Structures
1.
Amino acid sequence: MSRIDVLRDDVSLDEPTLVEGLPGVGLVGKLATDHLTEEFGMVHYANVHCEGLPPVATYEGGEHDLTTPVRLYADSDRDLLALRSDVPVAPSAALEFAECLSAWATNMDVTPIYLSGIGREREEGSTPALYGVGTGGASDDLDAVGIDPPEESGLVSGPTGALLSHAVQNDRTATCLIVEASQRFPDPQAAAHLLEDGVGVLLDAEIPVAELTERAEEIRQAKRRFAQQMQQVDESSSQARPLGMYQ
């Protein structure tokens, strides 16, 4: 049965913002939300039990406790939630997952910021392009903070695409930040840019990203196996991609 199990009744949230970090191109969403929760000291707030998620339990090095692979973290001072996922969501489960999470978010008056990478290689040290799209009035927020729209037409696929589709169909406010990222490898630099010049700007909050950039190679190596698994499932991953000239 689909449900969100809240673990912390002592955490008070008032119309919070949710930053989503499902695995995708360059693992930018996962890297960004993992870093965000650690940097802000966010607490494990809820477990996500949605139909179609793999029936697995995860653990962390140095910890005895098992937990669910998809979790929500909270920061009551900033009215902030972050979705962390240790597994991809299968294409066949994307719609059920989107309906499950979106129903809970609507009930909680949550405003989501979805994160996606668009696969493009770039020169070493160059800054990846960052774009924003949205629905339900989110375009005004993007204009207000100077985040540009994409230069070409495209689509967002995978579970993040399903979440955005649900928002469009139900006229819900939702923002999606799209950053250029490596198609082949984890991309900590793109994740750092996504946080510093995207999420941080929308939240009007400073998000330190030095650890992501300084430890980029270490992080890339640690996440390489996960990225290879994501390439194998392909359409499971959340990603933005151009439609091309002839749509």
2.
Amino acid sequence: MTDLNSIPALSEEELETLGNLLEDEADRNDSFDFFAVHGFITALLTGPVEFDVQDVWDCAFDETTSFTPANKATVTALMVKLSKEIQAWLDSGQDFPVPTDLSLMDDDGEPPLESWAMGFMSAVLLQEEAWYASNEELIAQFLFPIMYASGLFMDEPEMADIDEDSELSDQMCANIPVSIIELYLQLNGANK
């Protein structure tokens, strides 16, 4: 069991720096914001494929970004550090701490949880074959709350039914932290 106090967390200053750099880039080039990048990295680490920070750059950002070389180096270093924090949480076996409220109710535009889940599902779809190779039905079951929260599948009838019931929506979102650990164990259990 991991000592949760020993998890290598980003400092408040590092989180703010990463958040601001990603937010500025998202505003300029419609790339992933902090929550989407966090979700994307979480899925890459949860899944069965070896983590590579270059996958984040390839999927989360346009080919040309507005980052200066120094900013790009800072973002890369902070994403690598964030990946170590996420990996430690996955290894801990504790419910995963999604970095936002577990609700889609937000009056200020896109809820951070939707952005986080969209980032997560983007990584799953990138590596879909590997994710579903071991037990497609079980993986789909554990992915369902994240799929729902992402908004990427809102045309599916079962998603619309959940959307119409705010209590059910909140219950579905509340299942995400447990689902992440279950997915991680299912996809990596034999390797640990």
